[in-house]
């Protein structure tokens, strides 16, 4: 099963979700180079508060880069360009948060997000993104909860790391 692409969902819904965090979705023309893309090709790019994508950009890639924006410190957020990773726990938390956010995209959802993550090649100790999410993500959950990015029930708080208030939007 091919991964779900931005062109296959309502891009306005994706833009509205990202806007809740102060992120702007910039949809580029087909075959345009994606600025700030760590992986190149059709993968999403991140520069400051702009998340770049094309119609052929996978949704999991968009949510992963958005989750990097959400999980990084305010100081790093102010200078983000391409490589948003910081440390292992932040990367793990980013993966977890992208799955949580998938429920906010009509036609995507958590079940499809983990399938697409596996298809892309994410690697987890238990062999699949779903098994990791369900049984081995305690460190990510603890970190996200401690940072105020998810609540005790595992729901997104729509806050940015380091911001005590609800995120913009």
Q: What is the number of independent domains?
A: 2
Secondary-structure element order, as H and E? Answer: HEEEHHHHHH
Unreliable stretches: none
Mean pLDDT: 93
Strand order of the largest sheet: 1-3-2
**With helices defined by DSSP (H or I, 4 residues minimum), what is the helix count?**
7
Please count the beta strands (DSSP E, at least 2 residues each): 3
Most strands sheet? 3 strands, mixed
Radius of gyration: 15 Å
Instruction: Tell me the β content.
Output: 5-15%
Structural class: mainly alpha
Principal-axis shape: globular
Q: Assign a percent range to the helix content.
A: 40-55%
N-end to C-end Cα span: 34 Å
Give a structural overview.
The protein has 169 residues and is mainly alpha-helical. The chain has two domains: 72 residues, no CATH class; 59 residues, no CATH class. The model has no long low-confidence stretch (mean pLDDT 93). The longest helix has 15 residues. The protein is built from seven helices and three strands. It has a three-stranded mixed beta sheet with strand order 1-3-2. It is globular.
């Amino acid at each position: 099963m091919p991964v779900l692409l931005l062109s296959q969902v309502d891009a306005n819904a994706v833009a509205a979700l990202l806007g809740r965090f102060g992120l702007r979705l910039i949809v580029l023309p087909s075959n345009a180079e994606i600025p700030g893309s760590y992986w190149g090709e059709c993968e999403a790019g991140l520069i400051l508060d702009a998340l770049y994508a094309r119609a052929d950009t996978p949704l999991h890639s968009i949510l992963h880069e958005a989750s990097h924006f959400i999980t990084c410190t305010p100081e790093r957020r102010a200078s983000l360009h391409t490589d948003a990773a910081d440390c292992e726990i932040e990367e793990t938390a980013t993966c977890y948060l992208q799955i949580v956010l998938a429920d906010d995209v009509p036609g995507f959802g958590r079940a499809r997000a983990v399938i697409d993550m596996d298809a892309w090649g994410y690697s987890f100790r238990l062999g699949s993104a779903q098994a990791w999410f369900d049984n081995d993500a305690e460190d990510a959950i603890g970190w996200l909860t401690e940072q105020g990015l998810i609540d005790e029930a595992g729901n997104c708080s729509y806050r940015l790391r380091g911001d005590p208030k609800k995120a913009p939007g």
